[in-house]
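**User:** Hello, beginner here. Are you able to go through the protein record under this note? It all follows right here:
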Amino acid sequence: MNPTPQEDQARAALRARQGMGARYDAPAAPAGDMLLARRATAFFARKLNELTDAALDLPSSRPGLPRRHLIVIAGYQARMLAELVAWVREGQAGPPPRRANVEPDEIAWGMTLPSHALRNLVRHAVVHLDVEWRDLSDRQWEQTVTDAGGVALSIRETPMIRARTLREIVMDLDVGVTTANLPDGIRL
C-alpha cells in the first residue's frame, strides 16, 4: 500500500511544522505498510478505549476467550516485535533470546493485570514498537532476524504482521466491527 499524494503532502507539512529536531522513518521503510499498521493501531486503541473495565472480561467472538485475552495478545505482540526490531537495530549478534510469538505464560500473566495496567501495557508497547521502527536505518529494514526457535522474520514484514494481527483482534473483540465496516485505511 503506497501513500496517496494527499498523505505525502500531509507528511511534508507535518515535517515542516516539527522542525529539524524531529526523527522520521528511514526512506527505505515500507511507508505504506507502516501507515497501515499505524492506522490499525489507532483503530484498535479507539475500540479499546470504548470498552469499560468490566467489558474487558466479557466474551470475545473466539470461543472460550474473554476480550482481555485478545488485548493481552495485542500488547505483548507489540512488545515482542519491538524487542526483535531492537535486536536488529542495535546490531546484536546471534539469535535474539525470545521467540517471534506471544508465549502462553505471557498471556496467562497478562490476564491477571488490572484493567488500567493492561491498557498501559498496550499503550507503552505500541509506542516502543513505533520508536524502534522509526529508528531503523535503510539497511536494517532489509535484514532478517532468526528468533530463539529458529523462525526467520523479515524486519520489513513486521508492520504488516502487526496490522493483520490488530485487524483480526479488533474484529474478534465482538464490539460490532466486521469486514464490511472496517475503516478503508485498515482493510487488507
